[in-house]
Specification:
The structure holds 2 protein chains of 2 kinds.
Chain A (H helix, E strand, L loop, with lengths): L1 H6 L3 E2 L1 H34 L1 H11 L5 H38 L3 H35 L1
Helix pairs in contact in A: 2-4, 3-4, 4-5
Chain B lengths: L1 H9 L2 E2 L2 H33 L3 E6 L2 E6 L4 H30 L3 H42 L1
Antiparallel strand pairs in B: 2-3
The chains are: A mainly alpha, B mainly alpha.
Chain lengths: 141, 146
């Protein structure tokens, strides 16, 4: 009975394992690369703080040099915080899926898939919010 | 040889009910991302082709500019997004089909599409970062020469 059932069961076979491990590797690379890129971007912003503040105060009348730069940094940190949450789920998913397959641990695989699902869920919700804002701006024109 | 295959399949991870549930959820959210991506693509195409030149004013500063992004950059982003959406669509459809019909080839095809999706995503990120780096180097060297 047990044997007959296992014939019809789905398995993470060699091909599926390879696909999942490769997916995990690329996902890990994307997450780490994006973290580094965000860090570099913040460093560049801080390095060019004086120039950016000066340019902003020239183009937007009534805005002080430090005020303009503060607003920009605030908005960027807020956006980066959201992106970081998404990337943490992607990284967690990638690590757990890889670990689960390499150590043949079912629980790690499930947790990895769950983290990846959360990544796509947050991505999906943000995409819907972006779409609604885009639609509203198109209608308002 | 057959005995060996049987032994190796004994040690393979099983797609149990919990794993199936996660895979179904994953394919559902992937499909939502695909649908929103396609609608966004259509919107960005509409915006690009209905762009008007407008005068932007900041105090004494005046300039003529396109309010919307130019057609060239929209075409590139549409192609890239369409490729990614297609791969994610394939992952979503085949994974769901594989899990629902207990079809190993479909499940494998779906997971292979997920690999392609992340691979293309990674390569695009590398290309974009390389372009940004080159642009920064050019701007930096131009500023240093002044």
């Amino acid at each position: 009975m047990e044997e007959n059932q296992s014939v019809f069961e789905l398995q993470v076979d060699q091909e599926a394992s390879k696909s999942l491990i490769d997916s995990a590797r690329w996902a890990r690379f994307i997450a780490i690369f994006c973290f580094i890129a965000m860090g570099c971007f913040l460093l560049i912003l801080i390095a060019f703080q004086t120039r950016i503040s000066y340019t902003l105060s020239n183009y937007i009348p009534g805005m002080s040099e430090s005020g303009g730069f503060g607003v920009i940094i605030g908005v960027i940190i807020f956006i980066f915080a959201i992106i970081s949450v998404i990337l943490i789920f992607l990284l967690r998913g990638a690590n757990l899926i890889k670990k689960g397959i390499e150590t043949k641990n079912q629980q790690d695989l499930i947790e990895g898939l769950r983290a990846l699902k959360t990544y796509f869920a947050i991505y999906g919700v943000l995409a819907i919010i972006g779409l609604v804002i885009n639609l509203l701006s198109l209608i308002a024109k | 040889m057959e005995q060996q295959n049987q032994d190796s399949s004994l040690f393979d991870l099983r797609i149990d009910e919990n794993t199936k549930e996660q895979l179904r959820g994953l394919s559902k959210w992937a499909m939502i991302v695909v649908v929103t991506s396609i609608i966004s693509l259509v919107l960005s195409i509409i915006q690009a082709f209905t762009a008007k030149r407008e005068t932007v004013e900041y105090g004494s500063f005046k300039m003529q500019a396109d309010k919307n992004p130019n057609v060239g950059s929209v075409i590139i982003s549409v192609i890239v997004s369409a490729i990614l959406a297609y791969m994610l669509y394939q992952f979503s459809v085949f994974t769901k089909k594989g899990v629902d019909n207990l079809s190993q080839p479909d499940l494998n095809k779906g997971l292979s599409s997920l690999r392609s999706y992340f691979m293309v995503y990674g390569i695009i990120i590398i290309i974009v970062m390389a372009i940004i780096l080159v642009a920064l180097l050019i701007v930096g060297s131009t500023a240093a020469l002044r």
